[in-house]
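Mods, move this if it's the wrong board.
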Amino acid sequence: MNLFSSLPKIDHAQITAAIAAAELRTSGEIRVVLSRHKAPEPMLAAQKYFQRLGMERTAQRNGVLFFVAPRSRTFAVIGDAGVHEKCGDAFWKELTAAMTEHFKRGDFTAGIVHGIDRAGALLAEHFPRAADDNNELSDAVEEVD
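Not the wrong board. Structure tokens:
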């Protein structure tokens, strides 16, 4: 069931598939949280869910969280310490600018998938998948109030 019925459709299956594909190349972990309500401070909400989902407990501190609140047309993308030290602020600014272009057109799925693909490429470069790697966190899209 799509709980964002008054908003453009967000394809959970396509997002989950993008996460799974990105994680095949990296030991990094990617999560997506969709808020059913407005989020006037998306960065604070993202930080809260990053902790709540246990993303800071990955072995290499290489988790990336996409928090999207379509009702308020806000979002935030955050990476754990290991990721941020590899990419710096410039990567996040470029990533969010590209996602914003998709969101402005109302295509939230494409914006999120684009972000996942870019984050996945960065993670694969700096945190390649090892033979014994296991998926530490769920790939499912998390919907929250």
